[in-house]
Structure formats: C-alpha cells, structure tokens
Amino acid sequence: MKLTKERIVDAGMAVFAEVGYQNLSMRQVADRLDAHAGSLYYHVRGKDELLALMADRVCRSAYDAGTEALAALPPTAAWQDRVEAQAAALRLSLKQHPGGAQLLAESPGVLSPGALSLMERLLRTLLDAGLPAEHCGIAADTLLSHVTGFVLQEQNQPAAPPPVTAEQYAELCERFPLLMGPLIPRVGQDEKFTRSVRLLCTGFAALS
Question: Fold match between 1-43 and 59-205?
Fold first, then answer.
C-alpha cells in the first residue's frame, strides 16, 4: 500500500497509544507500516512534525464535534451552555483517540491549526459573553487544561477500585472525615465533568 502522510499519522497514533510520548520513535512507526524508516521522511520531517500532525488530528476532530454540538443548541442558549458544549465535545474526542489526552498534555509546545481553532472559538464565546478581554485568555486556557487533565485521570483509572476491608474503610473515615463524608458526592464521571465545567463558568461569570 502506498505510503502517505495520513497513513503515517494513523501509525503514529497507534504507536503513541502503546508507548507514550517519550518512547515514540520514527522507527517504530515505520515498523508498524512495514516500511523503511528513511522513507517516512519524504512525507514527515521527523518526530516533532509527526507529533504536531497527530495533535492536529485530535484537535480537528474535537473542533468538528464541537461544531455539531453548538449547532444542536437553540439560538437562545446561554454562553455557559455554549462553553459546556465545546468542553463536552473535546472530552469525548480525546476519549475516542487512544493517547489523545496524553498527546495534548505532554506536548504543549506543539501547536497546530486544530488546537488554535479550539482556542479561538472558545475565546470568541467568552468575549461575546461579555467577559473582560484581559481575563478571557486565562479562562479559556484553564478550561482546556481542565478537560485534558480530566480525561487523563479517566484513562488512567484502574478498571476496578482496590479492595478495601471494613476495618480499612472505618480507619479512612476516621482519618479523613471530610473526604470520606458527604462533602464529596459519589456521582458518575459524566455528572462530575458537567458539574466541574459549570463551576468554572460560575467563576468566569464573576469576572464580568
């Protein structure tokens, strides 16, 4: 099969999901494609460019998903709803790409048109909501960082929590009464994510 930039990115995403940011190499990508490593450089100049292309793919997917989510909102939707729609779309897109959250978290210096598009649209949403311009950049960056970190935690969670005996549980309740008490709601990840984004929006609204 003909070697193309798209196929190289496909292979890069697959290798990245297995070995992570630090261990990804062009040779491993070439092996995945059953090609010589040197032949990749006709299409991609090196690992940094490959990472940029991979990040761009994830972000473009998230941007397209966000466009659909925004289009589904009624014209009268509040700006908080528009922010929540974009955050939810980014979360789902990161979860659909194995290693996507790790890619964005560990390569913050690798900019891409897709990432810039996500930031640009979120900034426009906040500005149109009347938030002071001097705060919008930090607010948008905080939200995007929160979504990335949330997905990282989701993807790193064990399939099942470690077993805890009744004695261990009682000891935990005694040592950490606030953490183990009703102040920490026992809700699903979807509900937790929605609440967290709404808390951030409440903070953003206080700036105006």
Answer: no
